[in-house]
Structures are given as C-alpha cells and as structure tokens.
User: Fold GTPase Der from Herrania umbratica.
Amino acid sequence: NTKEATFVAKKHIDFTKIDINLLPTVMIVGRPNVGKSALFNRLIRRREALVYNTPDDHVTRDIREGLAKLGDLRFRVLDSAGLETEASSGSILSRTAGMTANVLTRSQFAIFLIDVRTGLHPLDKEVGKWLRRHAPGVNPIVAMNKSESLHYDTDSFAEGAMEAQILGFGEPIAISAETGLGMVALYEALRPMLEDYMVRVLDDNSSQDENFKPSSDCCKVDESKLPLQLAIVGRPNVGKSTILNTLLQEDRVLVGPEAGLTRDSVRAQFQYQGRTVYLVDTAGWLQRADRQKGPASLSVMQSRKNLMRAHVVALVLDAEEIAKARRSMTHAEVVIARRAVEEGRGLVVIVNKMDLLKGKRNSTLYKKVVEAVPQEIQMVMPQVTGIPVIFISAIEGRGRTAVMRQVIDTYDKWCLRLSTARLNRWLRKVMSRHSWKDQGAQTKIKYFTQVKARPPTFVAFLSGKTMLSDTYVKFLTKSLKEDFDLGGIPIRIMQRSVP
Ligand code: GDP
Ligand code: GDP
Assistant:
C-alpha cells in the first residue's frame, strides 16, 4: 500500500488537517486536586467543552470533552475530574464502576496526573489499579503536576520521580498545568503515540478515497461501518437537549459556560448497536437563523458548516406547537429542512412532546398532528419524497430506539451503492413503464450508473446531445426512491452524452 508507505516513511502527520472525528482521545485521570481540570483548560484554551453530567449516588460527576491543541498536535481530551469525590468517602474504584465503560470507550490514551508537592498518595495507587483493570490497553503517561514549585529544588524532584515509578507506568514527566512548564515534554511523550495511532487509522480509512472514483460496481469499503455523524437541529425548546440525553443515556448535556463565546461545533460520541455515532452540535441554529442582522450571519455560516459535517440531520418539531398552529413547520424550519437536503444530508423529522397530546389520543388533535406533519412536509418539500417522520416523547426517555432505528436506516440508505447491472435492469423496467414519446424527447438513456454514495449520485449516459427533460429527471428520481426505498435521501442525477 503506497499510502501507508508514505505515512510510515514520513512519520510526520499533520494533525491540523485531520478530521476531528478521526483524532485520538486522551483521558486525563488522577485523584482529586492533582490539577486535571487545570490541565484540561490549558489544552483546550478558550474553546468550548462539552459536559456530560452523570448522576451517581446523587452526586454530580462531570466529564468534559474538548479539542486539545498542543503545538501542532490535535487530539480530543476528556477531563474525568467529576469521576471522583472526596477522598474520605471511600474507594474511587467502587464509586466509578458505573462510569468506566462510559469514559474508557471514548479514549485510547491517558495522562495520569500526580501532585509532585504532596508525593505519592494511596489514592494515586488506586487510580493506577483502576486504569489497569478497566483500560488494560492504555499505557498512561505519568505527569507530575505542580512541578513549578520544585523549580529550584532538584532533590525533591528526583525523589518524586523515583516514587512515581512505583505506579509501574514508566518514567514520569514534570509539568505544571498552571504555568505551562513541561508542555514540550508532554508533547514529546504524546506525539509518537498519537502518530502511531493516526498511521493506523488513516490506513484503515485510506480506502475511503475510492468513494470519489467513479466505479461501476459495489464498493469494497463497508461505509456503513464508518462513524455516523448526526446533527440534531430545531428551534429553542423543542427538546433537542432532552433527545440528546436519551441518546447518550446520561442525565444532562450542557454546553460549558463559555458557550456563545466560541461557536465551534461541540460533539459527543456514543455507541449504538456496535456503531459509533458522533453528535455534531448545531444548537441554537434556528434561533440565530431567525434573526437577521449583525454577527448572527456569521453564526449561520458556522452552523451551515456544522450541518455539512453531519451525515444525517434530525429536525425536531414540537407537537404541542403544531397542535396549536395552523402549519406544522415555521418558515425557519422549512428553510433548514430544505438546506439539509440541498447540502445532500439525509433528513429525519422528529415530532417531540407527543405526551402532551396524550389522554386525547383519539381526539382530533393527536390524529391531526400524526396525519398533518408528513403531508405538510411532502407539500413544502416536493423534491424529497418520503422523508421519515417519527413521533416521540423524549421526556419519557423512550425515544432512543425509535430515533436511532430511523437515523441508522437513513444513514445506511445514504451510503447505499447499487451495481450498474442492477441499475440497468431497473432502468429497463422503468422505461417500459414510462414511454419516451410522452416526453417528446429524442434522447435515450444508454445506461445508468452510480458514481458516488453519501449521498447516492447517479449518471445517466445519453445517446445524442439532448438532455432529459426536468419532468423525466423527476420521474427517474421518484422511481429510484420508490423502488429502492430511499425516502428522505437526497438523490442526484447527472447527465452525460456519449457520442
Ligand atoms: P482536579 O481536581 O484534579 O481537577 O484539580 P484542579 O484542576 O481543580 O486543581 C486543584 C488545585 O490545584 C487548584 O487549586 C489548582 O489551582 C491547583 N493547581 C492545578 N495545577 C497546578 C500547578 O501546575 N501548579 C500549582 N501550584 N497548582 C496547581
Ligand atoms: P432545546 O432547547 O431544544 O434543547 O429543548 P430542551 O431539551 O431544553 O427542552 C425544552 C423544554 O421542553 C424542557 O422544559 C423539557 O423538559 C421539555 N421537553 C423536552 N422533551 C419533552 C417531551 O417529550 N415532552 C414534554 N412534555 N416536554 C418535553
């Protein structure tokens, strides 16, 4: 593999150019007060962090996730500061049992912080045990934090370093999260590990390039195995965060206090039936799109960029609002649905808060919503037939399966590849259904092939110079959607004339 050869030979990966989703994750671990949050903040600087808020023994534990920049290194970093409580109240091991799977499935690497001023603490050994038990594959970098205090005192420094080796994770590095001392050492320790990791990941993904080569038959890469990127969009208060939480199966997701300062997309990640799902954040997107002036336009651009990062866009509507209003979708909601489709994203509509119409289950209201929404969507977006609409009540926590089933179904269809043989069998059938003469067209499709997936894109090769009429293209699109069950998928058909 030539690609691999280049990477290995160069052994220099430009992390700044790598898709954030492919970047490795580094977890910061350590007992309370060693400076985990301080290091986390230094690594992400002023960028936003995503906070997972997990209830456990009625004590709040936060896990923050952010994009770390360390020189030219980029990685995702997790701060596990919320994992532990006061040292006095028992073993970290027992308290964090429920959390381990959650955090560890998200990380490939760890920075194990200790406090050089206090020396090794029994709890440090517990953290070490915890790591060995729950993350046997992770070989943490031990970092003696608060080392700036030892600047002129080399004896205690050497003592600390020797002591740290008792943990069994090799020689420690000396850092100071507060002053930035030792960041070069941290960089040098991380770089080779992250680089090795990236070489492996990029090699795994290199075959993806084949997507963009016109290929006449099914692609070898199983694209549905790649991480699914999902954006949940909608007006404020429709229940986006509530849905997010049912998906993550954690209690609350909050954007940190610096939200609004930085408007980067923030992400969370979870596993669903063996698949990795990334949540692309577009929070408040409609709120900003509704406003017209000032810096808002910038945010709209940003949100649009985030929308582009999504494979599937889930547009959330509020059932109670729909029941009250004359129309199912506001102008802004129509705009975003159309934009998602224009950008080639798969679209799913979620009507949330159905519980508010319960009790009146047989009433006209409930029925009106269930019937009106799909119809109206079809009316405002005639170009995309069969957009899936699901009705849930996120607050009851039961929407997860319904949402994920639809999202995955849409994603798989978005990734669909049809062989040229199959398409041309299909085309013959379609042509027999629909006479050319009806269209008054002189053109004839010689053959039909899929050039690309994600979203499915087709080329009709025509004999003669006359292009297909719009009506005929619409007819072909509609037939493709119906025959291959591609509701909610933006399909593209291009035309080429062959001499
Ligand atoms: P965590 O509980 O591990 O997240 O620890 P924090 O980040 O909250 O830090 C605990 C305390 O140590 C705070 O008072 C920090 O200001 C302090 N601290 C963190 N890093 C350093 C450092 O490098 N040097 C010194 N002197 N203090 C630090
Ligand atoms: P966001 O602004 O779109 O993120 O909306 P939130 O998730 O913060 O929800 C807004 C409000 O709607 C909160 O008070 C939620 O408790 C409530 N809510 C969310 N989902 C449901 C639901 O399924 N049923 C009901 N009755 N209320 C809900």
Q: What stands out?
A: The radius of gyration is 27 Å.
